[in-house]
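Hi U.,

Before I forget, here's the chain from the pilot set. I'm dumping it here mostly so it's searchable later in email.
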Amino acid sequence: MQIQLEENRMVKFLQKFDKFPFVIKYQGNCYTVGEGTPIFTVNFKKELDVKELLKSTSLALGEAYMRGDLEIEGDLYETLDHFLCQMEQFSTDQSLLKKLLFPSNSKKMQKKEVCSHYDIGNDFYQLWLDKTMSYSCGYFKNDTDSLYQAQVNKADYILQKLYLKPNMTLLDIGCGWGFLLIEAAKKYHVKGMGITLSKEQYEKCKERITQEGLQNEISIELLDYRDLKYLDKKFDRIVSVGMLEHVGREQYHQFLSCVYERLKPQGLFLLHYISAKKENPGDAWIKKYIFPGGVIPSLREIIQECSEFCFDVLDVENLRLHYHKTLLFWDKNFREQLPIIRTMFDEEFVRMWDLYLCSCAAAFHNGVVDLHQILLTKGVNNHLPITRWY
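Structure:
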């Protein structure tokens, strides 16, 4: 009787997601949700506590999928695409998830959080990223662009926006594996510096710089952005791609203060980051398993913070669908490499990472999140072209 009651409660909860038809399988019983021919089936192999669904829908379903207690009969991305267009039906009890959703922003904690994701291993990332080793949104100028071409396009687009000239200095905050800096040095003959908290990225970045013979043009430091204040130099240009999401809401002012202090007057700053429609603490499953401590800023709060430092906003561009396409490429590559990946990680990790890539693609497709590039100058700069030169 108790099992039947739990089953009824769970089915009733999931029946809210009725925008598209699907089937729920549970204990040999089948329930159709929505009208029309079912697109996929959610097969529960084990009982799912409804209390956990109410506490955090994404965490409960995500963990069940990772354990294999929940199977999707159909395409995983398509299933998530249909669920995430109904995000208003998801439950999150912030009071019960306070420690997970609102962690410390200390240097020690943020270094640990960043390394937990980016130090999984360069050999792992090399399997499914393209050869540029770019782990951020590509830029698809043509429908036929490969992932590699899109990442080259993205780097070129950012560097064009920065209006670089030979011998300028460029700081990359959160430089990843260094492709953007290498392109800047090779194509624009600038002097670049990159900082990261990831030891794996740091080592690979140094290796790539040496291979390119750019040791005199580019330097890489294992450095927290908050320690930029101790540098004794300023830069003509500063760029940050996909790093702001790790800063934390309480630290946006400090982050922008560090940028402002290191940027020369009239210098350009390009900020590329995943953005949310409104200010919220983020998704519980993503924060527990993928990006601990990660927070997605809203566009309006970053623009507001920028105004506090007299940053002049030149342009704001949304590349949301470019990230959707990038993530689908990544997941395709990831699945093609599964025989190798399964020798490196257990099945729970494999299912977790596949779920992460597909859910993020679905989130961008449904406008749950955006990808914004903001171009700013430190104070007014009247020496730039008055049209979008890039």
